[in-house]
Amino acid sequence: MKISRKSAIFYLVALAIFSLMISFYFRIAQRIEINSDMASGMVEALDMSKGNILLSGWSLSTVSFYFTEIVWYVTAILVSGYSYNITYFMPAVILATLCALMILSSENKKVAAVFTLFMLGAPTFFMARNVLTPFIHVGTYVFCLAAYCLASRYVSNGSKAVLAGMFCILALAYFSDTIALYISLVPTLAVVVVSILRSQYDKRWSVVLAVSVLSVATAMLINALFLRYGFVVPGVQPTKFATLEGIGKNISDLFLGVMTLFDADFYGRDPREKDTVIRCLSFFIIAAFIFIVALRAFKIKDNKDVFLLVATLIMPVAYILSDVSVGVSSIRYILPFFIYGTILISRINTPLLNNARVFLLLAILALIPSVHHIKETIHRPKASNGLKELSQVLYDKGLKHGYAEFWFASATSVYGQVQVAPINYDAEHVIRRDWLSKESWYGDNNRFIIIHDDMLKHAAIKAYGQPDDVIKHNSLTVFVWNKKLTTSNP
User: Fold this and answer.
1) What is the C-alpha end-to-end distance of the chain, expressed in Å?
2) Which of 307, 384, 448, 457 could bond to 187 as cystine, CB 3.0-4.6 Å?
3) If pLDDT is split at 50, 70 and 90, which confidence band does 14 have?
4) Is this prediction's pTM over 0.90?
5) Closest by Cα among 169, 148, 89, 433 to 310
């Protein structure tokens, strides 16, 4: 197949822009401290790269992220060798891919580009901590958008060849992250139900639903395989409806979270200051975005609109009505609102948005805070990652296996020099923690404990006696014993 010169130039320019986006996001990501939530997935990927393909012996967390993220980190390790910097690089690749897919999935690509830039493309630092850290659902959004693109193609032209790709993508996504069920399966089901209620049965969307259900069944089979030969997912307690008081708090957290995501919290600030003006502009763009989404909700054109509207609204509604929120930090769960909302808005066809002057004004108003967010985020200092120094100190002293409370464990192990297993503890016992950990870590080679508070200090001495050596590093203390340390069972 011969590619024209014009097409070749287009693809080269697109590749250059994509590469610049990755470089830019990588620089932003380096401003984020590596914590154990982020690091645990990297340690899993390192174990997989050494041959433990099914992560046998591992206890993971609420979801596995296996295909949506971990395998891509494994690929990076196999290609480039292990480095903790992959913790920064891969989120940059995934976010750049998500932004590209948001625009490619949209009909009015100019409108989509403007909102994509403001929503995700030029993140505030708080937003960056929700989209440029590993294993935080962004890979799932990429998978689900890719599946939506294939479903849209099938619905538009009946190309059955794309159904196989959609089936594979959804099966892997459903297995890896339950959020995929909410933003992909539920909207598809809603489309079929609405079409039946309207007496406008759509055979192609019914096929999409059938493929989606088959993907769920396949995901369940994959899960059974992993339960037998690979990892376990402890999960969490079943989600419940929030209390009436909880719903009020969730609404408040939702508002505050959105304002914080986009640095739009102008209230209580001096209107004469430049920063306040920028925050007001951000608030205006967010308000305009929500207003246009609301308009689209009352002007549904077809079944694609139904799908996009449900995918846009389902996570904010779930956030408000469920007990999943633990404060503003949980706002990451509503990111599909901005992702699918952007695609939904791009399908609007009104004289107002089609007016070149109106669009130019909107683009300028969105560009000003976006540039400001970029400037503020890039100028932040790089993360110090203090536990990297501790990892080196332990390695230099020949200490390669030990224990620490969860937030100090994988965050020390991620540098590839020592293996620190997460523990729980009470007044008298050091207890194995079956959460983002591997069973073999609690073996016979562990000789040290990273001490971060008095309770763990007393528990360690009670369980193992006085340490034979004590290492001081900044605010942390490391107790070392000349014997093997075993933990109590949970």
Assistant:
1) 61
2) 307
3) confident
4) yes
5) 148
